[in-house]
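Tokens in:
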């Protein structure tokens, strides 16, 4: 179908051209006015949707942040609690170490006392024999080393008596150290008393060396 005809007059042609121009102008106006607005509206709606999505995501992140902060606070409280418990445990360990040291010291003191008590027994035996010899006038026949060897021969302790064994061995060593000496009558008391005190002095030296 032809838009223009051969028999169209000038007026008809102008009318048709005006119509065509109006249609073209309408199309141009649509694409340059209405269509851009429509596109902008669509873009705005898309941006609103994205903004809504971002708002939701931000809300979720804020919720996660609050949860993490609560978990962090809980962990910090747990750490503080554990540190407090650790300090209590360390203090308890310190107390137990002190108690153990005291028990060990008491045990060592009791053991040392048992040895010293046995050495005191030997010392008293020698001293009593010396006094008896003086009372009966047997000073010349009294020999403290011979008497010591007799005591060693007749007072062998049981193997199960640990502290008596220690005292017995120390007494034997003490006698051996003086076996080549000539102990005079007036030196017998010193010999008997030194048996006890020499061990005690050695004991104190060992304690000092060990830092006790």
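Residues out:
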């Amino acid at each position: 179908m032809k838009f223009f005809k051969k028999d169209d007059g000038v007026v008809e042609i102008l009318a048709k051209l005006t119509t065509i121009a109006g249609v073209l102008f309408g199309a141009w106006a649509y694409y340059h006015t209405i269509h851009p607005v429509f596109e902008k509206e669509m873009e705005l709606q898309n941006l609103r949707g994205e903004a809504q999505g971002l708002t939701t995501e931000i809300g979720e992140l804020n919720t996660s942040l609050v949860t993490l902060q609560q978990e962090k606070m809980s962990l910090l409280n747990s750490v503080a609690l554990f540190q407090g418990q650790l300090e209590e445990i360390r203090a308890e360990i310190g107390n137990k170490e002190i108690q153990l040291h005291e028990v060990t010291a008491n045990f060592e003191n009791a053991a040392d006392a048992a040895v010293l008590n046995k050495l005191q027994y030997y010392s008293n035996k020698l001293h009593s024999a010396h006094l008896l010899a003086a009372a009966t006038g047997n000073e010349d026949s009294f020999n403290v080393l011979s008497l010591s060897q007799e005591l060693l021969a007749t007072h062998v302790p049981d193997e199960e008596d640990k502290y008596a064994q220690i005292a017995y061995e120390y007494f034997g060593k003490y006698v051996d150290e003086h076996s080549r000496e000539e102990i005079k009558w007036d030196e017998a008391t010193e010999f008997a008393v030194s048996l006890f005190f020499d061990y005690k002095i050695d004991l104190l030296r060992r304690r000092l060396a060990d830092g006790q």
